[in-house]
Design a protein that fits this description.
Oligomer: single chain
Radius of gyration: 19 Å
Distance between the termini: 44 Å
Shape: elongated
Number of helices: 6
Largest sheet: none
Strand content: under 5%
């Protein structure tokens, strides 16, 4: 069964076990899915409200795009665990001969690249969702302001959590050009996302006091 198809109780129980996966990478992607879902929810609670008539086109567009990101982030959640298991399987390959050692090393490197690429994709998708959340700040149902704030916090956590998973893998990559590109992609997301998430949260918190 895919992680995304488990119950909340089942998934958190698996996380709490001694199984090495799922772990922080899958949780980071799930945080992103939470943020995208909450952004879509805020739009749903704003759609058709006369008070927000001037923003209906924006709200409809953001709702559609946020809802489309949700299943993509859930897919990343599943793929993150699959990538980890790929590396684990590679480490278990035989290494009795020079040929076996070379094949094992190559398989490990391929797995590590996958374990880097998947969270990077999660970062970028969560970054897109965060941009959507920011675009409706001050233009959506005020009664759902706290929900939009939680969306921003979830997306921030998802992005930073995925970044940690990038960092833990790139140090073991032999292809330094690949590693450098990965780091540049991740930092580009962080540079835009972290200030935006903080602004959303701080703006909403101030408006509620």
């Amino acid at each position: 069964m895919k992680l995304s198809e488990q119950t909340v109780a089942g998934f958190t129980g698996l996380l709490a076990s001694d199984a090495p996966a799922p772990g922080g990478g899958s949780v980071a992607a799930l945080e992103g899915a939470f943020g995208a879902a909450l952004t879509a929810m805020v739009c749903a609670l704003t759609a058709g409200r006369e008070k927000y008539a001037a923003h209906q086109a924006l709200i409809a567009d953001v709702q559609k795009r946020a809802e489309a990101l949700r299943p993509r982030l859930l897919e990343v959640m599943d793929r993150d665990t699959e990538a980890f298991l790929t590396v684990s399987a590679a480490f278990a390959l035989p290494k009795g001969t020079e040929e076996e050692k070379a094949a094992r090393s190559q398989a490990i490197q391929r797995g590590l690249e996958l374990c880097t690429e998947v969270p990077l994709e999660g970062m970028e998708l969560a970054g897109e969702a965060l941009e959507l959340a920011g675009s409706i700040l001050g233009r959506c149902n005020e009664s759902a302001a706290s929900d939009l704030g939680v969306a921003a916090l979830s997306l921030r956590a998802g992005i930073q959590g995925a970044w940690l998973n990038v960092l833990i893998n790139v140090g073991s990559l032999r292809d330094r050009a690949f590693a450098d590109r990965a780091l540049a992609r991740g930092r580009a997301v962080l540079d835009r996302a972290l200030p935006l998430a903080d602004n959303i949260y701080e703006t909403i918190a101030a408006s509620l006091q």
